[in-house]
Write the structure tokens for this entry.
Amino acid sequence: MRFLLLMRHAKADPLAPGGSDFDRVLAPRGRSDAKTMGTYLARHRLVPDCVVVSPAARTRETWTQTSTAFGQMPPASFEDRLYDAAAPAVLDVIKQTADSVGTLLVIGHNPGLQELAAMLIASGDVETRERLSREFPTSAMATISFAVENWNAVHARGGRLEHFITPKWLRATSD
């Protein structure tokens, strides 16, 4: 069994005039939301074995804030191909993950992550799947399970949506 955690970066500051999208950092709410998501992961024993992060400033900072909830820091790498990537490019990165990794966290951008989640999911709670298809806000995370032997076997409509969590949902349910 493999578990894929797809997390959109946390809320970033707006693009400054003349600034670079790549260099945008997190807004105060984004830093708080990323920590909230890390706490959720740790509390529910969804600590990744490996993390792959887009190299943009806001995704790096999302990982930094999220990881504060983990006792032992999982290994992380920064993958250029994830910056503003479409779903097929993200899937290519996932398929290259080592067989020893059971739970993989990918931190990236929309619309690629939402499109990938929709493409991979074949089953799971219908209402939750519909909510994911409507929105994938900042700091949102989809947990998708796959009954495969290795990451290269992950394919469209091969996964089950286990969780779709947002900071707003966590605040509303007081998990």
Q: What stands out?
A: The two ends are 26 Å apart (CA to CA). Residues 2-12+23-173 form a domain with the Rossmann fold fold (CATH 3.40.50.1240). The first strand starts at residue 2 and ends at 8.
